[in-house]
Design a protein that fits this description.
Strand content of chain A: under 5%
Oligomer: heterodimer
Structural class of chain B: alpha+beta
Number of helices of chain B: 7
Number of domains of chain B: 1
Strand order of the largest sheet of chain B: 2-1-3-4-5-6
Order of helices and strands of chain B: HHHEEHEEEEHEEHH
Strand content of chain B: 15-25%
Structural class of chain A: mainly alpha
Largest sheet of chain B: 6 strands, antiparallel
Number of strands of chain B: 8
Distance between the termini of chain B: 71 Å
Shape of chain B: globular
Radius of gyration of chain A: 21 Å
Largest sheet of chain A: none
Number of strands of chain A: 0
Order of helices and strands of chain A: HHHHHHHHHHH
Amino acid sequence: MSTETAEVKKPSEALLSKRRKKLITDPLVDDNPITIQVLGICSALAVTTQMQPTMVMALSVIFVMVMANLTISLMRNTIPSRVRIIVQLAIVASLVTLVNEVLKAFAFDMYKELSVFIGLIITNCIVMGRLEAYALGNKPYDSILDGFGSALGYSWIILAVAFFRELWGSGSVFGYPVFDNVSALFGDDFSLATNGLMVSPVGAFIILGLIIWVQRTKTGYVEH
Amino acid sequence: MQQSNAYIITFSVILTVVLGLLLSGTSELLGPIQKKAEELDTKKQILGAVMPAEELNRMEAEEVISYYESRISSKVVNINGEEVEQDEEGNPLVAENVNIAKNFKRAPEERLYPVFIFHAEGNEEDVQSIILPVYGNGLWDEIWGYVALQTDLNTIEGVTFAHAAETPGLGARITSGDVQARYRGKEIFNEAGELEAVRMQKGEGKDYSADPHKVDGLSGATITAEGVNKMLERYLSHYKSYLERKRTGDAPVALN
């Protein structure tokens, strides 16, 4: 009996087949949600003054996207198409509230700093966009990979922006005083100045613009 | 595919109930931990007025709490500076539990004013500074903080400010150490003994070290700075009677 069913079954796809790898790697550069699709800009500007909150934000977005994609994909055959947007919104909002509550309980300082922006994950177009475009029509495992890929694409960009903003704006990385230590190497009179522009949202625009510029020069992507 | 209305309604109801249970369950579960985190945060803010933030951040949660308990005593006073020991229902008052934001909504005469006293370890008589909470409106939302006065009840030992939603990089800078350090050593009463408080000036980068009632402003955050000024002025005036009584050594307990 068991051998018969095994024969009928199609050989299952490798856990990380080429197609599935592409689900994760595509959004990193070629189809990056921030630099190519230009989604999720609002939080990319707001949370990126320092590395640490940015890291928390990135992890939260990864969690919300993976879980939302999984849930929607599991429910995809039962969700009535006429109310699907509301269903997606309800699921995302619940997940975001969960993240917010957990942060409030276990990382209160982060919660104080980020709670406004965590709430805004709900309106982060990347999340809803992937649910609508992918999770509604694909199997759970693929949807998880897709969500993870898009969230990673978002994360590395905001982390890169935060790295330069914190370095130039506050002279540190993850709170470690880089500028002070570098200045100390050159004697007492030498001190690297921080750039206040980087701390304000304008700084994020500039860094983001530069990243998009570099990336598009390399990939040759043009908007049509 | 088109589903029937009955299906859609049933689906929505089930979804709502499931998500509702999930969320209320979580908040029930995490509620006590969140409350503790909030209390710890308040204690950190109070201590932040008398000690450097870096030192506080290095301390573990339990260390902060035990340090707080050994160094801070508290009481509640009214607008006349009289100590209040019971609330309207006759329950004993604890300064840490007085909700400043709620009290802010009442008329100044009816508010409860907590006072936190920073004293030497284990000796409540050896007062080192008096910490007063302040509360007001910034540009977008509430701002609050704690002002520590030295034993002359005039010189500012240190301040902490916090905010709910000021603009990052502009108004939100009131939480940064270098802005708060500007208040250190300033005086709230003028030479004639009148309350003058300390005002943040418009613009940034000038030297106000000669003037005990002025500090350098926040460039690009005039409204937040103005909010801080109002907050300090108002609350210090609310505490004025208490400070004056304390100065003359006359601090009777209110009868109510």
